[in-house]
Design a protein that fits this description.
about 70 residues; 2 strands
Length: about 70
């Protein structure tokens, strides 16, 4: 018999957390690493595809994917 997991109802706390994540992601994508850094902790670990590991938004902002034509 399949188990059904109910999603927790959104709370003010989860809405506030989602807002913080959204502001971080927007700043990261601009890129504006100084603003994005306002929303991180010292323990931040970001892993991009290919196993690239970063600890600060300035590192992800500097990331340049390699493009091959072939």
């Amino acid at each position: 018999m399949a188990q059904v997991h109910a999603l927790a109802a959104a709370t003010d706390e989860t809405a506030q957390a989602a807002g913080i994540v959204e502001r971080f992601l927007v700043a990261s994508m601009v890129p504006d690493p100084q603003t994005a850094a306002r929303y991180i902790s010292d323990e931040l670990k970001i892993t991009f595809t290919g196993g690239r590991k970063y600890r600060h938004p300035r590192e992800t902002a500097a990331f340049t994917p390699s493009v091959t034509n072939g």
